[in-house]
Design goal:
mainly alpha
Length: about 70
């Protein structure tokens, strides 16, 4: 049979576990906030990188055309 009285140690253990869970949740929220900020800062860099890649592909195509013309000479 289970005893129905709650001891002070059990209440203290539950309080400590609850405090630990709240601290963990707060730390996780802070990490998420930092990651969101760094992602926001990286967005312009990603857009610039996409433009540079597109320009590089255009230059490669132009270089291929030049090489083909030179080979025909």
């Amino acid at each position: 049979m289970i005893e129905r009285k709650v001891t002070l140690a059990l209440l203290l253990a539950v309080a400590i576990q609850t405090g630990g869970a709240l601290m963990w949740a707060g730390a996780a929220a802070e990490r998420i906030s930092v990651l969101e900020q760094s992602a926001e800062q990286a967005r312009p860099v990603a857009e610039r990188l996409a433009r540079v890649e597109a320009e590089l592909e255009a230059m490669r195509a132009q270089l291929d055309r030049i090489e083909n013309k030179v080979e025909r000479l």
